[in-house]
Amino acid sequence: MLRIEGLGHRYGAGAGGSASADDGTEALRDIELTDPKGQLLTIVGPSGCGKSTLLRCVAGLVRSTSGRITLDGVPVDGVPERLGIVFQDYSRSLFPWLSVRDNVALPLRRHGLGRAERHTAAARMLEQVGLAGAARRA
Ligand SMILES: Nc1ncnc2c1ncn2[C@@H]1O[C@H](COP(=O)(O)OP(=O)(O)OP(=O)(O)O)[C@@H](O)[C@H]1O
Ligand SMILES: [Mg+2]
């Protein structure tokens, strides 16, 4: 279960040598959210409302300036195990010099899987999303 309590984030807080409360850009304020295990959660809102900031905080990529996030009761203070994230800008999340299969297989290195196992798992995932053909061509 994902639980978010009183989450706030301000970019650039305290920058420029001033301690004013108006510093920086307030991206999130007092976010409260509970997402039970197994539920699909969609966050929608206008551009700039803080969706990416919220996801970065949940993913442990940004340390929020206030509040608390827990995943199955464990505070998120780094990138949680088993987390997957697809960034909005694919040019930053894919390596153009790697094949489709090798891009998908890359994170599995962290889990200590051997080359053959990584390739088998990547092929299975690509098949699931209808991209098996792309992997064969790459
Ligand atoms: N790295 C940053 N430094 C300073 N301000 C930022 C940074 N990233 C985002 N912001 C600001 O924080 C606010 C929330 O931005 P965020 O990117 O989280 O919104 P978003 O809902 O994901 O927008 P979009 O729909 O355009 O992706 C905006 O005012 C944005 O300008
Ligand atoms: Mg965004």
Q: Identify low-pLDDT runs.
A: none
The count of DSSP E runs of length 2 or more, i.e. the number of strands, is 4
Q: Which small-molecule ligands are present, each listed once? A: adenosine-5'-triphosphate, magnesium ion
Query: How many domain units?
Result: 2
Intertermini distance: 38 Å
Physical arrangement of strands within the biggest beta sheet: 2-1-3-4
**Morphology:** elongated
Helix content, binned percent: 25-40%
Mean pLDDT: 89
What is the strand content?
15-25%
Structural class: alpha+beta
Radius of gyration using CA atoms only: 19 Å
Order of helices and strands: EEHEEHHHH
* Largest sheet: number of strands, sense, barrel closure: 4 strands, antiparallel
* Tally of contiguous helical segments: 5
Architecture blueprint of SSEs:
Elements: E1 2-11, E2 25-35, H1 51-58, E3 66-71, E4 74-75, H2 90-93, H3 100-105, H4 115-128, H5 132-137
Antiparallel strand pairs: 1-2, 1-3, 3-4
The chain binds adenosine-5'-triphosphate and magnesium ion.
Report on the architecture of this protein.
With 138 residues, this protein is of the alpha+beta class. It has two domains: 2-75, no CATH class; 94-137, no CATH class. It is 28% helix and 21% strand. It has helices spanning 51-58, 90-93, 100-105, 115-128, 132-137; strands at 2-11, 25-35, 66-71, 74-75. Strands 2-1-3-4 form a four-stranded antiparallel β-sheet, with helices on one face. Bound molecules: adenosine-5'-triphosphate (ATP) and magnesium ion (MG). Magnesium ion (MG) is lined by residues 51-52, 88.
